[in-house]
Amino acid sequence: xxxxxxxxxxxxxxxxxxxxxxxxxxxxxxxxxxxxxxxxxxxxxxxxxxxxxxxxxxxxxxxxxxxxxxxxxxxxxxxxxxxxxxxxxxxxxxxxxxxxxxxxxxxxxxxxxxx
Length: 115
Hints:
This is HupE/UreJ family protein. The protein is mainly alpha-helical. It is about 70% helix and about 0% strand.
């Protein structure tokens, strides 16, 4: 949609809301059923994907640009997995939940217009 120039209302709001929802899920240690988690992530992915596609420079090679995002996303997932393993260490659960709080608070700050 973003590459095609189709507008999507509320992109920035959707991205900030994703930080609030997913950050709070970490803080509260919520583990919804897989289908619920997939639906929530898919919903928010539309906003993130639209923003990235819309912001692609005109001079950029779309394939290289997309490959960079795939690589970046993979590295972020690996970092998340590593951080998730930290939960089992002393103080790890508290640290991970605190980081979830920082993510949620940052999203709320964007929604409130503070950031």
